[in-house]
Amino acid sequence: MMKYLLAIFAVSFLMGAVLIELEHFFIINVAFRDLSGSSCPITLAIYVFIIAVLLGFSFLRLRPLMNFRGSEPCEAEQSSTLRMLYRLPYELFSILLILGSLAAIGFHAFNGAESGSDAWSLQLGQLAGELSDTFIVGIFIFTLARCLMRAVVTELKPSAASFSGGASIAQPILLTYISTFIAAVLNLFELAMLAADTDQSISPYKFACIAGFYLAIGLLIFGFVTMQFRQELRSLIRHIRALVDERKHLSASMSVISNDEAGELAVVLNQLQSRVNRDYESLEKELKLAYNVQQKLLPPGDMTIGSYRITARCQPYNEVGGDFFDVVSLSSSRFAVMIGDVSGKGMPAALLMSAQLLLFRSEIRRNGSPGEVLARMNRQLCEAMGEEGSITIGVGVIDLSLDTVLYASAGHLSPYIVKTDGTYTAVDCSSLPIGFDSEAVYEEKCLQLGAGDRFVLYTDGLIEADDEGGSMYSFEGLEAEFSTWGPGLDMAKFVDDWLIRMDERSGPGRDDRTVVVLDLAGEYRSSLAQFDVAASAAAHGSVGALFNHAFTTREWSIRSHLGDERQVAHELGRWIEERWPESTVREDVQSAVAEAMINAIEHGNRLQPNSYVTVTAQIGSMIAVCKIYDEGGGYFPRVSRDEDEMMKKLESVDPRGWGLVMIDSLADYWATGRDDRGFYTELYFMRKTKQDHEE
């Protein structure tokens, strides 16, 4: 830093000398060397002496800063150093004025004593000119040193606690402008003394030129100081705008580079920013917690129930949103699907959404048609909220055996039935949204689905998405998308690609987006549909012989950790041996159940250690039924049980998929489904003895 100060001092003295030379040559028409005569070496010596004193003083003042640069100073040291940096330009200016004035007065007093009283006017004029030169050099040193100190302060990154205040932007402006004014007055006085010494009148032209010259210098320096202040204000404005506009954490604080009003504004802004950041972090944690709770309330996005593959995607506009959907198993042959949209966005909508989701699950299990469920939900919401909230909901109850959908809507957008050839039909069925009229009645429609049909539910955030030109996606865009849906599509991947295309066209959107697709992928058959009861009954004398004893039940639950399934399989095998001591199916049951548990751990729960796999086993006199539950979305059993697919897996060198082949070969029958506990794989084993094998 000392080399920069040396450069500032040298440049300032040089610039001062040049300005004085130009002023005397062009305005007074007298060269400065003619005025000073043989004093040039003495003047140069004085300049060198003053620069040396300024450098020594700066070194003493900056030594604490040099001592702890590169380390982290304590708050008291930083505060003291900052005060020193703020004051140093003023101190250098004051020292220069004192030394320059003393040197000029001493030099001319000595010259005046030698030349006598006859040249007093000339000596006085020269003294005024040199004092003017001192003020000009002082202004340059003050301005340049202030710029250097501001850069050093910026590197220190001072905290708000180290800011002392007490200064004003008016101080440097007044100092430079008053100093320039004094320099101009001294030069005018020099001009008057020179005119008196030569018995000449003062030229109005020279007078005006000197005044204009120093006025220009004063305005130039005034503009420079003002520009620095404006830069600080502009930086403050940018930070304030970022604080208002940005929806993210602001990590960079405003540098406190001055001890005036701008520095005080920077301190206040940093304090405000710190408080906003704390509040933002707290809100972010709350929103993250709310998001996690909301996501846990929603069912998995990919599910399989009977012959239906269900694909659901919910994209909230904010961290949490008001869109929701649900899938609830009602019995072995019925399940309900629901989609809803709460008016508004953000946390209020998310809270109302969570309440409605739980209310729906409670009401749908109380039985009743979709219209009756919506009516009960509507009455409860009207009693609790009055007119402060409204919700649109669409509810469908699907009968797996008939492939029918009994649908009712409370102000929700019309769903679509999309055929495999790309044709579609909008289902016109709607009533008032929930929350408007406590006595509202909700219309129901029974819809028949065919093989390959897709029942599509969605929210308004999908059709109201605008592109850059302001064009809405609309129902036309939605129906154009449906027309591209052909048979055999992987709907999960297809819906994901669709939403990605939506984001590319319209951006993230200004509303939540939710879509639910029910894909009727095959013919439904109940769990025992493929079990040959007649043949088994003939072998054992009667149907009653199969179920003439009550089933006994046991249950195991383990975390999703590979290897733990062996203990469950061992206990199950020991229990099979206790109940069926003469049976030969023990090892088959153990192996099949272990493979089903591995499948549930790896593919259902995706090896998440906090997810559980539950095994329920029921053993009767002639049949054993084992259910393996996981917490995932499931898979489609008809595809998994395809004979050609099984043969390919069996013949393949790749061991992936052999588990299903093993289950299929060991169990007498197996199926998948979903009930209140989640997705399950169900295995059936007939009681076999050595005699059965021999026969």
Please, could you describe this protein's structure?
It is a single chain. The protein is built from 20 helices and 16 strands. It has 695 residues and is of the alpha+beta class. A six-stranded antiparallel beta sheet has the order 1-2-11-10-7-8. A five-stranded antiparallel beta sheet has the order 3-4-5-6-9. Strands 12-13-14-16-15 form a five-stranded antiparallel beta sheet. β7 (416-418) and β8 (424-426) form a beta hairpin. The chain is elongated. Keywords: Hydrolase, Membrane, Transmembrane, Transmembrane helix.
Which descriptors would you attach to this protein?
695 residues, alpha+beta, five-stranded antiparallel beta sheet, 20 helices, elongated
Helix and strand content put the structural class at alpha+beta
End-to-end CA span: 103 Å
Q: Please state the average pLDDT score.
A: 78
- List low-pLDDT spans: 525-534, 540-549, 637-641
Strand order of the largest sheet: 1-2-11-10-7-8
> What is the helical fraction, as a range of percent?
40-55%
Radius of gyration: 45 Å
Largest sheet: 6 strands, antiparallel
The helix tally amounts to 20
| Count of individual beta strands | 16
What is the global morphology? elongated
